Amino acid sequence: MALPVLNDSPIYQVTVPSTDEVIKFRPFLVKEQRTLLIAFESQDRRQILNAVLDTIQSCAGIDPRPLPMYDVEYIFVQIRAKSVGETTDISIACSECEHKTPIKVDFNDAIIQKEDVPSIIKLTDDVNIKLRHPSFYEMVNNQIITNDETTVTDRLTESILLSIESVLTEEEQISFKDEPREEKLRFFNSLTNEQFAKIKDYIDSAPKMIYDAKWDCEACNKPNERRLSSIDDFFS
């Protein structure tokens, strides 16, 4: 005799930040929560991010791989909020004494911050580049970005290489992803500091989920403020 299904899951809605599309989702179940717990306990960034993707696919019935990072993070937080509670407890280090104080984060106060930055950047009189925000899946599967031992400089370089969609000249539009990696690096290394700064401004302006945490250190009483802006921040 087959065992009964215990519960009918409630259905909720969330608006995808990049498209304003409304999608439906259910809370995650014990099987999905177990996978997430194992992933977060592993402290392996790639395992964590893949568990997040799997959870969204199971609970919302969509393929989240083409979505940009901020969409995936926002949708996951909404699913998590309806599954195990709309707050989470994290510990953040004091800027003065580095003591970690536990604080409560309310996901209802998290917002998507957007900046209007042009995606086409003029590098020279003859060359422009078109930029984009890489998908969450591209970021997850890039070993340089997800490796905790990679330097910040190498991660930034890799993020820029993923963000360049095409190089535009008067004669042609060159698809950047189709070029050999050696050519991509040669192009990157030929940038001036000013050109590099323009591209970095675009990357830094990518929409992100933010929460402004404020607390007094329980050890030295110093008032602290810190902006949380990633899954790593929200579940540290």
Q: Describe the sheet with the most strands.
A: 4 strands, antiparallel
Secondary-structure content class: alpha+beta
- Tell me the total number of β-strands: 11
First-last Cα distance? 44 Å
Number of helices: 9
Helical fraction equals: 25-40%
Mass-distribution shape: globular
Query: Which oligomeric form is depicted?
Result: single chain
Query: Please, what is the average pLDDT?
Result: 89
Low-confidence stretches: none
> Which H/E pattern describes the elements?
EEHHHEEEEEHHHEEHHEEH
Give the neighbour order of strands across the main sheet: 6-7-8-9
Measured by DSSP, the beta-strand proportion falls in 15-25%
- Rg: 21 Å
Number of domains: 3
Structure characteristics:
single chain, 236 residues, alpha+beta, rbstp2171, 4-stranded antiparallel β-sheet, 3-stranded antiparallel β-sheet, 11 strands, 23% strand, globular
Give the SSE map.
Elements: E1 12-15, E2 22-25, H1 30-42, H2 45-60, H3 69-84, E3 87-93, E4 100-106, E5 111-113, E6 120-122, E7 128-131, H4 136-140, H5 143-146, H6 152-163, E8 164-168, E9 173-175, H7 181-189, H8 193-204, E10 208-216, E11 223-228, H9 231-234
Antiparallel strand pairs: 1-2, 3-4, 5-10, 6-7, 7-8, 8-9, 10-11
Helix pairs in contact: 1-2, 2-3
